[in-house]
Structures are given as structure tokens and as C-alpha cells.
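Work Package 3 (structural annotation) set out to generate three-dimensional models for the target panel prioritized at the project kickoff. During this period the team completed the workflow that converts sequence records into C-alpha cells, so that structures can be stored uniformly alongside our sequence database. As a representative example, we reproduce one entry of 239 residues exactly as it appears in the project archive.
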Amino acid sequence: MKKVLTASALIALAGLIYLFGWSDIFSVSKVTIDLADPKTVQEVEQVLAQPPASISIGEKLARVDKRAINARLKSLPWIERTNISRNFISGEVKISVSSRTPIAKFAGGTNDMTFLGKDLRTFTLSTQAVVSAQSANAAEWRDLPTLTVQSPTVQTFTDVKTLIDQLAGAGLKLISMSVPGPGEFLITIEPNGKRVEVMWGSVQEFDTKKRVLDALLAAPENAKVKKIDLSDPINPTVR
């Protein structure tokens, strides 16, 4: 009895392998790129169609190589993650992509723009790639704060991210950030629609510096202030 069951199971397994891997019943009938911008969709389609094509209509669904598709899509510098799903009932393959998350853009970009990512890595995109990235995460990358760093290091970028996060958490709109040297941060913020340049100093003592900044900006005599030095929050200066 066991031999009969085993033989039946093997026959059934062979039938399933043939059904999914060789027959025309479960094949790709549609490939959907889950992006809003038509140009970005076309860009992704062109990358997938480059010979040898990583996916094509009529291909067996079971043979769709997710790793190959993922590797092909990762050749686009703005893509961070991908998700490929197969519907064996409709024959649809749905491809979703997530763009990288920038926290600042470097000064001086024209046709190509260089960004600092949330992962503290820098990457450069063409104008069209920026449009594609924005389409994928519905963010306005050109509105990011402008960053200038004289001596980029891992620690510097870590401090940059820390300060950007702290300023955003405090509700301060950051326009630009310059790092002329280790532990030296010069920022331009826009409180109440007025731009103010602040020599922030190091990323230390954020809460203290924020309280001093609020007090200085609230003082009537500083209504027209354009520059504030908080590098020593105990002895701040205004101009």
C-alpha cells in the first residue's frame, strides 16, 4: 500500500512540475510596473528588456527569475529595493520598486546631482533619474537641504545625519549645511519665513542650543538678525 501511495505521489509531483514548469497554462500574460510616472515605467521596462531579456510575455511563471530581475533593476542607481510577485491565476507579474532615501543634496550639481543617502552613502543621478526616483517615493528631491563638506568622512556624515534629524524633529526648516572642518557646522535655517545663518558648532548640546536659538529669535531687538553664533551656547552672538 505504501509503495502504491509513494508511486502516486511521485506521479502527482511530476505532473505538477510539468504543469508549472513546462505547460502553457501557467505563463506570463502581463508585466505590471507599479510606478506612477510613465517615463519611469518606460525606463524600467527598457532595462528589463535589454538582451538577454530578464522577463517576457509567454515565459513560464515558475521560471521567472526574481534574482535576475532584481539584479537588473539594481543597475539603476536610484533603486534601493524591489519586490516581484507572480499571480498564477491571472498570469500577471507585478514589479514594485522603492527608491533610495536621500537626506541632502551636494552643492554644485547641474545636469547630474549628487546626494547623501539615509544609509550615509553618496550617489549621483542624472536629471531623469532624479525624476524617476521622485516618482517612486513621491518626494521632491530638489527641495532637500544643500550640503557642502570639505573633508567627507564616515563620522562627518554620521554627524550630518544626526543634526539634520534633530533639526527636523525640532520643526526647523533647514536650507543648507556647510561643514568646513570636523565638528564645525554652519547652517542656514528659515524660521518664520526668514533666513538666518547659524554657526552651530558641534552636534553636541542640541537641546541647549535650540533653547538659546528660540530665545534669541523671540527677542524684539533681534527682529532683523541675519547671523547667530551658537558654537558656544553660553556666550552666543548675533549680527
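The longest strand covers residues 79-86.
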